[in-house]
Specification:
The complex is a heterodimer of chains A (211) and B (196). With 211 residues, chain A is of the alpha/beta class. Helices cover 31% and strands 17% of the residues of chain A. Chain A has one domain: Glutaredoxin (3-Layer(aba) Sandwich). A 7-stranded mixed beta sheet of chain A has the order 2-1-5-4-3-6-7. By secondary structure, chain B is mainly α. The chains are: A alpha/beta (211), B mainly alpha (196).
């Protein structure tokens, strides 16, 4: 039996170079893999929460919102002194948002350090108010202020009428809730736990003094 | 060692490589010819300079990917209130990835400089490889695209009013490599000089 062997005298140069470069690339990736544990940004549980931008209303006026200011990246799991965040993506004209608004306000009062009956970490409540692309859902800042006042909410409302934050977070509909750890990592999202209320998630996940 | 001072470890070989591939490279390397015979010819000189630049570029790109990864964990590396704060750029999840595929710029830099290094190593071993002309053109095209990307990344720095020294070192390495491949292509067109 005869074999026709094709010899390429130049293959060695390419092969040698390829082995060297691939090895170098592999070493570089291995160094990163062994010395860093990157966390991606996203809205799934375990991911770092994306930024929330825009002006916010706290009862006195509209000022620039600083979402990162709520987080401490050096927070350690179980540390009760760290403050958690619940953010609701809502539309002031959405009927279900209106129905749940009163209850949401009660949660904000319940899971606060100002409530002596709550011995867990403080939970900051936020609402990002958008304007859904549905007929009759026109909104403006005055409507957001009125909504906040009507339900006696004392937490900040962020103006997301342009839907920037909603798109950034990939919110499919309102209301949508997220519970975020003090280090900025999403601990719970309503879209991943359709049968669990945000209050139940707080009780389950937020550390308490006696726990 | 300050994180901004550490960048010198990458910047120094990049600048030496830049000097070697520049038109004034021969006067710089003349004293080193006895120790490094490959520097005798213009081709050897350019390929040596490009090898140094590609290695430094690869290393600094790896470092930027590592910094991005550490920041995403919640750590900080070169955070500063001054203009020179790479954390503000490498830690920005919108700006530290390419807008099309969402790949980290550090990883793209690693891949680009690894490709340049591959080309240089092949040409160093077999300068008359059948694909040598294509390899040189590929190096020139890669670094040319790199210059367009540098324009985008510098616009991010203006937007954020911050300067990332690690990124700037990788940009310098790309520009130096572009100069090197440009001169290598011209040398390749002159067969007598190329085969010296």
């Amino acid at each position: 039996m005869k074999f026709n062997v094709i010899e390429d005298e130049n293959a060695a140069a390419v092969g040698n170079a390829l082995i060297k470069v691939m090895s170098l690339f592999f070493i570089g990736i291995m160094i990163i893999a062994f010395t860093a544990n990157p966390i991606s940004v996203g809205t799934n549980e375990g991911q770092r929460a994306p930024d929330v931008e825009g002006k916010f209303y706290n009862g006195s006026g509209w000022t620039e919102f600083d979402f990162s200011g709520y987080f401490n990246t050096s927070w350690q799991e179980g540390d009760v002194s760290g403050q958690w965040v619940v953010i609701e993506f809502m539309d002031t004209d959405c009927p279900y948002c209106q129905q749940s608004a009163e209850e949401f306000g009660q949660f904000a009062n319940t899971f606060s350090v100002n409530n002596p009956e709550w011995n867990g970490a403080h939970v900051n409540f936020l609402a990002s108010a958008t304007e859904l692309d549905i007929q009759g859902h026109d909104s403006d800042r005055a409507e957001i202020e009125k909504f906040r006042s009507d339900y006696n909410h004392n937490f900040p409302y962020i103006d997301d009428i342009d839907q920037d934050n909603m798109k950034e977070w990939g919110i499919p509909g309102t209301p949508n809730y997220f519970l975020i750890q003090p280090d900025g990592i999403i601990a719970w999202s309503s879209s991943e736990h359709k049968d669990e209320k945000v209050s139940d998630a707080i009780v389950r996940l937020v550390p308490r003094e006696s726990a | 060692m300050s994180s901004n001072a550490l960048v010198g470890v990458y910047l120094l070989p990049t600048l030496i490589g830049f000097l070697i591939v520049s038109p004034w490279g021969s006067s710089f390397t003349s004293s080193l010819v006895d120790r490094f015979p490959s520097l005798k010819t213009a081709r050897g000189q350019l390929l040596s300079g490009l090898q140094l630049i590609s290695l430094a570029g690869f290393a600094v790109s790896t470092q930027t990917l590592w910094i991005s990864s550490k920041i995403s964990e919640g750590g900080s590396f070169c955070s500063s209130t001054s203009t020179f704060s790479c954390d503000d750029l490498l830690g920005n999840s919108e700006l530290n990835v390419d807008p099309v595929l969402g790949l980290s710029w550090g990883l793209i830099g690693m891949a680009a400089f690894a490709l340049l290094l591959f080309i240089v190593l092949v040409l160093k071993q077999e300068h008359n490889h059948p694909l040598s002309e294509r390899f040189v053109s590929m190096g020139l095209l890669t670094t040319g695209i790199g210059i367009l990307i540098i324009g985008l990344l510098v616009s991010y720095e203006f937007q954020e009013e911050k300067v990332c020294l690690y990124c700037t070192t990788a940009h310098i390495a790309n520009i130096a490599a572009f100069v090197g491949f440009f001169r290598l292509r011209r040398l390749h067109e002159n067969r007598d000089e190329w085969n010296k």
